[in-house]
Amino acid sequence: MYWLITDTHFGDAEQLLAHKRPANFDARIIENWQKNIKQEDVVIHLGDLAATKKDLAIFAQLPGKKVLVLGNHDDLATEVYEKAGFLLVCFSLCLPYAGKCLLLSHEPVSELGKADINIHGHLHSLEQKSPQHLPLALEYNAYAPWRLDKLVRDFENNTI
């Protein structure tokens, strides 16, 4: 199964004020991750992982095969992210899925090329840049990852 998550910002106290997160947002994200994701699942993180290398170490303890699409706060060497358990580190990812081409990025991409949908984080809101953009925000998903199949189905059915 494929899962998406974005903007975890582990250990970043500024998130409490900037995005009105609860004081225990780190624990809530970890609990939801562990409750939903199995070791054989693929988790694609759409960037902005953690405030420090120490906070980044959380990912090595979480289940799943992890892929990182770098965010604007992810400025460490690729090897650091690999040590934290990420199998692939990239700037964006085109994923063929259910007959669609999904462009996965941290920030919304204005030129989609051949992509059908741009799934992204960064905005901490559900504001769509166009009908082809699907923004994700943990603040609006109870700090839980999204199952990709359900996300794409809901997007196509306009039930998001």
Task: Identify the notable features of this structure and list them briefly.
160 residues, alpha/beta, five-stranded mixed β-sheet, four-stranded mixed β-sheet, 5 helices, 22% helix, 24% strand
Strand content: 15-25%
- Give average pLDDT, whole number: 96
Number of helices: 5
- Taking pLDDT < 50 over at least 5 consecutive residues as the criterion, the unreliable ranges are none
How many DSSP-defined strands? 9
Across the major sheet, the strand order is: 4-3-2-1-9
Radius of gyration: 15 Å
What's the order of the H and E elements? EHHEHEHEEEEEEH
* Largest beta-sheet characterization: 5 strands, mixed
- Considering DSSP H and I runs of 4 or more, what fraction of the residues is helical? 10-25%
Q: What structural class is derived from the secondary structure elements?
A: alpha/beta
Coarse morphology: globular
**End-to-end C-alpha gap:** 20 Å
Give a short summary of the structure:
This protein has 160 residues and is an alpha/beta fold.
Describe the fold and architecture.
This protein is α/β, with parallel strands linked by helices and 160 residues long. Helix content is 22%, strand content 24%. The protein contains five helices and nine strands; from the N terminus they run βααβαβαββββββα. The chain has helices spanning 14-18, 25-36, 53-56, 78-83, 148-156; strands at 2-5, 42-45, 65-69, 86-90, 93-97, 100-105, 117-120, 133-135, 146-147. Belongs to the metallophosphoesterase superfamily. YfcE family.
